[in-house]
Amino acid sequence: MVIGLVLTHWDTQLGPLIMARYPNNFQVSKDEINKILMTHSISKEMTNEIVEIRLKEKIFLSYCPKKQIPVNGYSMMIIVLHLNEELLFDGIKNQLNEIGENLFNRSGNEQIKEFHQYASKFFQKKSSRKILFIGSSAVGKTSIKKLFFEGIPSESLLDLPLEPTYGLVQFNYDWLDLDLGVADLAGQEMDHFLNESFESEIDPFDSVDAILYIFDSTYWDTNSREIVQHIQKILDINTSRDLKSQFFVFCHKLDLIPTYDQQSFKNEIKYTLPASVQSNLFFTSIKSDMLHQLIRSMQVVIGTLSPQTNYLEEILFETISEKRNTAVIILNEKRILLSASTEDFKIINYSHIFSFISSMNLLLDDFKSEFTQLQLKGNRFNLHFSSIEWLSEGECIILISECLSFKELSLLKESIQYSLIYLETSYEKSSDNLNIDQKNSSK
Ligand SMILES: Nc1nc2c(ncn2[C@@H]2O[C@H](COP(=O)(O)OP(=O)(O)O)[C@@H](O)[C@H]2O)c(=O)[nH]1
Ligand SMILES: [Mg+2]
Questions:
Q1: What pLDDT, in 10s, does the model give residues 141-185?
Q2: Who contacts 110 (Cβ-Cβ below 8 Å, separation ≥6)?
Q3: Which SUPFAM superfamilies match (predicted)?
Q4: CATH hierarchy code of domain 2-123
């Protein structure tokens, strides 16, 4: 997306001077700056302006405080983007107008400090967080992980039993603002690790930010005592070692409990488990018609670690809040990053979305073409599917509505796209709310 930013001043004797740049090895040539300056000088009106020029594979957006030219001469703040990032423009231009005004009213070091602060927002580093999946063998830990983080369809996970996991295995996933480590503790070893006197060189609880205990719904009848004991031991470890990690319980494979029994089954579990886990207890399944619940639950888990996930979720819910029968889903390649729907929206089968996308990708491969947009008109719904420009590449958005027209759906998409630009600058604040940084520094 953004390649770099420079703050330049035109010196009448020396020509263009670079006052500040970000990243610190970022280069803009004299020739490029000259062309930008010439473009600014076309209009004789002395109002602050943004110009946009395209040179080779790059786009330069330049803010010039022209009101100050009579006193200070020409100064410019230039943002350089890849040529294919046009969707970001409106958002960045608006930001530039605000920031530019503020920046050029300051002088010297203050101005440079402000520039660095603004520029660095485009290059946020990812934070490392770790989730531990823990639970007896064959309860579905690896399946949940593969489905949610790797976008492997449920059908193939259900048809082909996975190799059992041995020991402690950690996988790393890129997840918005997170570099997320997901550790999968094999069932066989869990009992050892929950036993305080057990000594080992590996410590599965070392610097975990979230612990996810998973049990199999069908074990409850015969093994509820053991399940409660596991949960109690994990709670004890969390407190006695001062891990400060979030704790979640997934009662998984709910599809194996007959539908007519599910409500009383859920109630029984709720009242048997310690009160402190009740708000973090979820009933899940990878069966395709129950995927929405699993995805929602995983979103809650990740939301406690990732400020950006929270913000994005807020944006999605806000955008659709006044609408009816509408849902929005954001995908990254094969994975569903986030979804939100209005309460009256009919629950859809997410596995159909997965297969829809994978056939789309196959078709595009045939044409060696990149995906941009698709509209689908059913007699009861409209669907808008398009790529969306954001932090990383390959994000797509799907909007489905039983009430809104194509035009309205594409306006909703634009408004989400627009809010995403501001996400970068605002999500820092929310990490304070979550106390994640405090937590890490106390570790
Ligand atoms: N019916 C049903 N089977 C599941 C579900 N999730 C996983 N499984 C199956 O349970 C078995 C064990 O899953 P796995 O992920 O290997 O469990 P792990 O040992 O906890 O990692 C596999 O055969 C999966 O296909 C589910 O939600 N419902
Ligand atoms: Mg496993």
A1: 999 999 999 888 888 888 777 677 777 888 888 888 888 999 988
A2: none
A3: P-loop containing nucleoside triphosphate hydrolases
A4: 3.30.450
